[in-house]
């Protein structure tokens, strides 16, 4: 079966490393991620977003992840990434996910608290742990002014209240990271992160992990980040390799011959991320 989300995030928080959530997009991603985690003796979270689940098929995705968890000798978790509403949370639970994220960050604070609390009350009796989002983690394509950006960041006083009222297990607090390709250098608000850690005490999650300088990731982990999410970096190296192989071999038609090299690139990238997050040899 799947590993325990809470156990491993707490282990990370206590020992000063972050568990990697690597998002899955297809079979090759799962295979690459599991091989990397196994070779590095690292606990690993497979993140599945609504978009990825629609693409793969929820039941296919779960079956592949379960097979991966059974065959692996390291703990594997299957986590719903950015669950948009109760409906998706229920779908994930019914199909055997080990933990979920409810992302109600688009809603006003009161409504985010209410929906997140509802999800926690539903999940905890079933032994399923919950991550929620506070502040808004934007896309890198959103062109925000300084004031607009500030308005998206998580306020420590809100985080304190949010955690106290919802009893959520992990918090994705917006501290300036973004999803996708950064145009410039991402500016993480470390002071804010430290303050949020201080008032919440629970494992914090860094979304938009692709493209953040290594030193900044390490600093964030030292300040309470116990889980880091990665997707874009893997998509990028996978696709670049497929492109390269196809360009060099215009007559190639066997998908295994270009997907395989793409898969190898994901594996190498995941190994890098496991080293960066300090998750190597934790199992
Ligand atoms: O929830 C997913 C992550 O936050 C992925 O972000 O694609 O920028 O690495 P990324
Ligand atoms: Zn995210």
Automatic annotation (TrEMBL):
Zn(2+) 1 binds at residues 82, 179, 207. Its cofactor is Zn(2+). CDD domains: TBP_aldolase_IIB. The active site is at residue 81. The keyword Oxidoreductase does not apply. The keyword Coiled coil does not apply. Zn(2+) 2 binds at residues 103, 133. Binds 2 Zn(2+) ions per subunit. One is catalytic and the other provides a structural contribution. It comes from the Bacteria. This is Fructose-bisphosphate aldolase, class II. Dihydroxyacetone phosphate binds at residues 180, 208-210, 229-232. SUPFAM superfamilies: Aldolase. One of its GO terms (biological process) is fructose 1,6-bisphosphate metabolic process. InterPro entries: Aldolase_TIM (IPR013785), Class_II_FBP_aldolase (IPR050246), FBA_II (IPR000771), Fruc_bis_ald_class-2 (IPR011289). NCBIfam families: cbbA, fruc_bis_ald. GO terms for molecular function: fructose-bisphosphate aldolase activity; zinc ion binding. Transmembrane segments: none annotated. Keywords: Lyase, Metal-binding, Zinc.
């Amino acid at each position: 079966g799947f590993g325990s989300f809470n156990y491993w995030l707490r282990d990370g928080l206590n020992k000063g490393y972050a568990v990697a959530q690597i998002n899955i997009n297809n079979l090759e991603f799962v295979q690459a991620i599991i091989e990397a985690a196994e070779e590095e003796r690292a606990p690993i979270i497979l993140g599945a977003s609504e978009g990825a689940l629609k693409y793969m098929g929820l039941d296919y995705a779960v079956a592949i992840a379960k097979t991966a968890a059974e065959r692996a000798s390291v703990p594997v978790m299957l986590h719903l990434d950015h669950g948009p509403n109760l409906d998706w949370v229920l779908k994930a639970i019914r199909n055997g996910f080990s933990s979920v994220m409810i992302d109600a960050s688009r809603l006003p604070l009161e409504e985010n608290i209410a929906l997140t609390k509802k999800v926690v009350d539903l999940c905890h009796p079933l032994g399923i742990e919950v991550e929620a989002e506070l502040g808004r983690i934007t896309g890198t394509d959103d062109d925000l002014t300084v004031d607009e950006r500030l308005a998206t960041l998580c306020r420590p006083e809100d985080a304190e209240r949010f955690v106290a009222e919802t009893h959520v297990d992990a918090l994705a607090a917006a501290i300036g990271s973004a999803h996708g390709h950064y145009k410039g250098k991402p500016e993480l608000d470390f002071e804010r992160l430290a303050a949020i850690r201080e008032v919440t005490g629970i494992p914090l999650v860094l979304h938009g992990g692709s493209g953040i300088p290594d030193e900044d990731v390490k600093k964030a982990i030292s300040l309470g980040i116990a889980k880091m999410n990665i997707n874009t970096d893997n998509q990028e190296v996978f696709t670049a390799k497929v492109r390269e192989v196809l360009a060099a071999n215009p007559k190639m038609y066997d998908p295994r011959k270009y997907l395989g090299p793409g898969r190898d690139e994901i594996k190498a990238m995941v190994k890098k991320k496991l080293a960066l997050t300090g998750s190597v040899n934790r199992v």
